[in-house]
Every structure is written in structure tokens, then in C-alpha cells.
Amino acid sequence: MAEKVQIFNNLTRSKLPFVPVIAGEVKFYSCGPTVYDFIHVGNARALIVGDLIHRIFKTLGYHVTFVRNFTDVDDKIINKAKEKNEDALAYAKRFINECNIDMNELGMLPATHTPIVSETIPEIINLIEDIIKNGFGYVVEGEVFFHVPAFRSYGKLSKKKLEQLEHGNRVEVDDKKKHPSDFVLWKPAKEGEIFWQSPWGKGRPGWHIECSAMSKKYLGETFDIHHGGVDLMFPHHENEIAQSEAGNGKTYCNYWCHHEFLNFGDTKMSKSLGNVVTIRQFTDKFGGVVLRQLLLSAHYRTVMVWSEQAIERAISDVERIHKFVIHFKIAKSKNVDSSGSDELTGKIADLVNKMKKDLSNDFNVPGAIAHYFSMIRMINRDYLDEQLDFSHKKKLTPDLIKAIEEMTLLTKNAVGMIYDNPEEVLKTVERAKKNISKQEQKLSSETIEQLIIERKEARIAKNWSRADEIRKELDASGIILKDSPDGTVTWSYK
Ligand code: AMP
Ligand code: ZN
């Protein structure tokens, strides 16, 4: 029997018991990345949240069909490929491969299906034909639009009213549209651009239609859960609902989950803002296991802020977890009383139940992880030893070992934070620690310039001890000062 789950549903803006279309099954769709470059750690949050929903349902006993797409036909891809003089689809394929490498580093389970737009064109065309046939779409000079006022429940997810949208300034003005909110389902190809033949001429799909067509292809007309970032709720998801319900005449999706942003300071990390750290830049220095741990540390509905402290915390958590796994394995072979039993076993069984409860309570991963850390604390204190000297420690018993293993397996399966090769992980941790201390040494150039000015002022005031202190402070941060005879000071990294 699958565990009961509660989900915060953005359709109702409330937490509800999860009732699947088919008992014991979950049909789940998550909007995947647009592959025009290496993807960034903000996108990684989207991928990890999708992976968590997938894993948690599986672990709680459901049969899950999980679909995550790649957008391989898009203006940004076409433009980037043009710059590089490459075929747009081949260019996108290259970044799909890079993205798969990143996902592997992040310890993600493969989705059941990972469709791409260029292989879903017949399904997209069929759905657009149904939309037109049902009176929700119209064609102007080879371009097909969705007529928003025809779909009466438009706005049911984003809670936006059509009248507000008419006066809003976010809607582009286009002479061909019957209504300013109408959006493109199919657009004619420009000269030299990738295209497919369609009943409306040579062209390619608009962005929103791909998810409606892909989810229908693999999950059917009505499915259980749809996930994406909060930025996608409007217009992307609102438009998906309109397209699918207009074309199929059925409810599209029952539960809508949106994760919050990963921010850089006060703003969203985004490629277009240029404030990104790519997954690859991060994992090269710190490893995927650290990025995963970092992203697990906040509930999916809270905003996360990217910071050095968060990275440090993640490194130390990864180390703690994997050291525990290694020490426990050794203790199992060296420090066991095979006839004994231990009252701690019951406490760990309680923690397992609490963990399941958190996992099934709107995917409360930080809560679930906290129970695993409680167990680590208890077992480290009384049974394990860093130096592998167990002489002052209690002996593990078979029932206790079983309870610890059950909890470890549950954690591994449901949140994926325990990697298979703990010794390798500890090497990654060492590399991460070296790289973080290098990063710490690097003061910003503004701070350095400021300290140089302060030192100059201290020298003018003949405050030699302060001037000396500043030089030492900079030296400790890896900065060398060079005093020229004319009084100017230059600096460089050691
Ligand atoms: P895109 O490639 O921009 O369509 O984004 C793919 C997924 O990443 C979507 O679910 C976005 O909502 C999500 N995403 C993009 N930037 C961020 C960010 N800074 N924090 C969290 N999720 C993001
Ligand atoms: Zn989508």
C-alpha cells in the first residue's frame, strides 16, 4: 500500500490530500531546460525538485511515470547556433548531452521519458488542429493563435483576470491577434530557419504547445502532477492548461507544484541577467554531491539564496554523512554483539516513521534529512569512533544494525544524498575544501583598494602599527602589495 501524501496545490493555493487518477500510480510532468548553453545552478534547483518528487513517490510505494522534456527548438537556440554557424538541432543536442552529464553528477534518477520538441512535431500539429476545430484557435498568414477569451476559465492557475491582462503592459501588441492576450501555437519559419511542414505552411511550434503535446503523448489527457519554477506559472502553465483543455475537452492536470527561485542576492539567478554559476563550473570545483546537498537544504517552496556559507555547510554535511557510512560499515565488522538487543532500535524506527511523514507532507525534505542527522548524532556518540578505536564504545546489535540500514536506505532512495562510493566522496570533499579556502582568500578588488587607501592614511598619520596590520591582513588573504618610490601602491594575488 502506498503512503498517503499531501501536496500544496497551486490551483487551489492549499495543501490537499493527493488523490491520483489511478490508485497507486503517479503521472508526473516537469518542465525541463531550454538547451542553448550550459545550464546554471538555478536550473539545477528545478531538476533536483523534479528528481525529489519522482524519488519520494517511488520510495513511498507508488508506480511513477515521470516525463521531463528538453526544449530543443527555440529562438535562443536558433540564434546561438547561427552565431556559431551550426545546425540548430545539432547545437541543441550537444547541450542535451552536457545537461545529461550534469544530471548524472547531481545523482539524479533518469526520468521515464525525456522527449524533445523536434521529435514531437506530429503530436503538436494534431493538438493544434484539435484546438482550431474546437473553436479556440485561428490562423492568420500561416501563423496560428490561441484565442484566450474563448477559453472561459483562463487564469484559473495564476489567478489573473482577463480584464487585468488586457490593461497590463506585459502583453505584446500584434496586429494579427484578435485579442492582446492571444498567444502563438505555430509560427511561420523565417528565411534560413529550421522548419517543419504543417497544414499552415512551413513553420515551427510556439513554446507553450510542446508541454501540452508531450504530456499527452506519455501521460494521457488528464494526469496527476505538473511541476516547474514559479516563473513558469504565468503565462507558460496557464497557456498549457488552456491549450490542453481546449484541444482535449478534459481536465489537464490535477496538482500544480512550483518551486521558488534560487537567488543571487536579491535577484533571481538567470542567464539573461548574467549572474549565473553554471552547474559545470560548480561541480568541477566542489562536486555534484555538494550541489545536491546544498539544494536539498531548503524546502522547494522557499526562496534560496546562493552564498559561500551555504556551500560550506553543504560540504560539511556531505562529509559528515559519508564518514558516518564508512565508520558504520567498519563498526559492523568490528564492534558487534550478535546476541544482544538495543532499546535505541525503537527510537530509530520512530525516526524512520517521522522521516516518511515529512516526505509525504508536501515533500518536506529538510525535515526528513534532519531525522537522518539525529540518527547520525546518536550512533556517532555511542557506537562509532573516528580513530576506529571502539574500546570505549557500545557494541552494535543486529536489530540496531537493521534499523540503521533501513533508515539509510530510505534516505538514499528518497532524497539521493548518500552516494554509492563514500571513499570517493571524501576525496571530493577534500577538493571542495581546498577550493573554498582559495575562494575565501580572494577578497574583492573593491575591498583591496579600500584597505590600500586606509593603509596610506594610516602611514600619513604615522600610525605604523595599523599600516602594518593591514599589510598582514592582505597577506593572509593572498594579496601582495608593492610600494613604489613615488608613493603609489600596486597589488597582485600571490
Ligand atoms: P528555462 O530553461 O529557463 O526554461 O528553465 C528551466 C527550469 O529552471 C524552469 O523550471 C525554471 O523555472 C527553472 N529556473 C530557471 N532559473 C531558476 C532559478 N534561478 N531558480 C530556480 N529555478 C530556476
Ligand atoms: Zn513546460
Task: Explain how this protein is built.
The protein is of the alpha/beta class and 494 residues long. The chain has three domains: 6-259, Rossmann fold (3-Layer(aba) Sandwich), CATH 3.40.50.620; 323-438, no CATH class; 445-493, no CATH class. The chain is 48% helix and 14% strand. It is built from 16 helices and 15 strands. It has helices at 41-59, 75-83, 88-105, 121-133, 162-167, 209-219, 233-248, 279-286, 288-296, 308-334, 344-360, 365-382, 398-415, 422-441, 445-460, 464-476; strands at 6-9, 14-17, 25-30, 63-68, 137-140, 143-146, 183-188, 203-205, 223-229, 253-259, 262-264, 267-268, 304-305, 479-483, 489-493. Strands 4-3-9-10 form a four-stranded parallel sheet, sandwiched between helices. A four-stranded antiparallel sheet has the order 5-6-7-8, with helices on one face. A three-stranded mixed sheet has the order 12-11-13, with helices on one face. The mean pLDDT is 93. Bound molecules: adenosine monophosphate and zinc ion (ZN).
List the helices and strands and how they pair.
Elements: E1 6-9, E2 14-17, E3 25-30, H1 41-59, E4 63-68, H2 75-83, H3 88-105, H4 121-133, E5 137-140, E6 143-146, H5 162-167, E7 183-188, E8 203-205, H6 209-219, E9 223-229, H7 233-248, E10 253-259, E11 262-264, E12 267-268, H8 279-286, H9 288-296, E13 304-305, H10 308-334, H11 344-360, H12 365-382, H13 398-415, H14 422-441, H15 445-460, H16 464-476, E14 479-483, E15 489-493
Parallel strand pairs: 3-4, 3-9, 9-10, 11-13
Antiparallel strand pairs: 1-2, 5-6, 6-7, 7-8, 11-12, 14-15
Bound molecules: adenosine monophosphate and zinc ion (ZN).
